[in-house]
Amino acid sequence: MNIVVCIKQVPDAQSVHFDTEKGTLVRGEAEAIINPFDLHALEAGIQMRDSYGGEVVVLTMGPPQAEDALREALGLGADRGILLSDRAFAGADTLATTYTLAKAIDRLGPVDLVLCGRQAIDGDTAQVGPGLATRLGIPCVTSVSTLEVLDDRKTMHLRRVCEEGYDLIEVEMPALLTVVASLNTPRLPSLKGKIRARKAEIPVWDAQELGAEPGRVGLVGSPTQVVSTSVPKFEARREMLEGSPEGQVEALVARLKEAGIL
Amino acid sequence: MLRVDRKKCVGCGECEEACAFEAICVKDNVAVVDPNVCTLCGACVDTCPEGALEISSNSGEADADLDLWRGVWVVAECRGRALAPVSLELLTQARGLADRLDTALTAVLMGYEVGSESQRLISYGADRVLLVEHPELAAFIEEVYGNILADLVRKERPEIILAGATAMGRSYIPRVATLLETGLTADCTGLDIREEDRALLQTRPAFGGNLLATIVCPRHRPQMATVRPHVMKVGVPDLGRKGEVISISPKEELLKHRSRVLESVKEQAEGPNLTEAKVIVTAGRGLEAKENLALVRELADLLGGALGATRAVVDAGWVSDRSQIGQTGVTVSPKLYIGCGVSGAIQHIVGMQGAEIIVAINRDAEAPIFNIAHYGVLGDVKEILPLLIQRIKKERG
After folding, report:
1. Taking CA atoms, what residue in B is nearest to A87?
2. Chain B partners of A139 at a C-beta cutoff of 8 Å?
């Protein structure tokens, strides 16, 4: 089974703290990690390969340092990692990103399964998975929480999580799945894996290598543009209620009545 | 790329402060950008007091056909045969946008035996309803819904399309945007019109809510956005409002699909679901034991709200992961959030900081949640909750 897992390097939220004076969240020395959802996608890929053979190729688009994320994935058990990196890729929105990823997957040859995390924790769009499936011309199932390959090895049964429960879905392969955290528990890297990852060669594919049209990658290929940004301020309405437990409860009820909730 | 105008730059370092990625720093009194690290988020551009920074896109010429695209569309969402609440929020918001653009508002209603909801869409502001009904649409399939919507858009050319940022919207609207090769902004919390060029200004939280970004889609049509449920207000319906209902049968070729829904299972107990609830009462580790969860549930029920949970509580197996709020769970923005024994780890906070009123009950005065809570109650949840429940019951008589 040929499996591609798309991952993204993101800043670790742990390194963000709260500035009580300014009332804002401050991003400190942000350490880069693999997007948490993507670790579940990778785990699913590795388990499938271990059951059915084939290989797991990990793809990421990013700056040169995103190579670290690929090495980490290799340490966890991926077979190969490919870095899509080019200054021309910078500033890509989800449409340009899916174009670039699809170019790379086409170049890899036939795939049976493409796995992505439900969303990246920095952008939170959840758009790359479904968009990529559209470009690849394969069906997409989002927010997958369980998966089972049927005996024909061409069909899968999945649970798709939604607001009120889940749908049990049957999908033909090749397919693209975006996965949620409850799908599995990602393994830890093995010593052997770490050594292999350190030595592994990671090819870098740029726009030319991918045969990508210059007008369709990066900022130039992105229909959406950020026109302004602002840091949301938390209202300085903070109030510690005082008194005995009964007194605090009384004060709270009064506030909620004032706000029209009770 | 991000360009620094060396003549204007005074080396003040404001940009360095604003950058979340350490991609810009001041060297020899002038800002220097590391293009390998810069994500072109624009935070520095807005901060620069000298106007020395600019993001240039070298992009192609304007699409001359932009004026051919007119009208605002709302994609109505049905759960079974009933409209999801977010559809009414979207209509209310979209009505305002359509009025400012002096154009018509269309609702697209897809499903099976859902036509009875058409009048409701009209009473909340739609001028016309495109009603697409077919037995194959009874269950939601990304490919089919996406293909039909893209086909309608190609024929009718609306300038703006809004859909709910729900499980359903987020799964197939990206397909539509990709088929149409246009921009899509996810999970918007604010929408506005830039009148000089009819651009839709789409505001959304980014980086876990640490940044609010306003996004436009200047040269492509339609301009598409998914909108976070429960952020926009629902207007008052005008039951006598008249509109046109246009029935459309989808072409067979659009109904082809490679996935199907075998079964839809409702997992949730009675009451509102988490992303749509007006009140959320959240269980944290401070509850100490699973039995105490009953108190949280009772308060949630009493307030007509939903039960939320922190990751620790989910990991402990007290509740299923669908209740998890935060970075690896869902993002919520209720009117009232009550954290019960929730310490307020950053991964949780990014999922609930959009709540209108945040109440924290915790016995640890140093708990970080008190930094963002509007009202803090210092005490043991096991003691406070029964008092609060009793007091609210008394209030209600």
Report:
1. B36
2. 142-143, 257-259
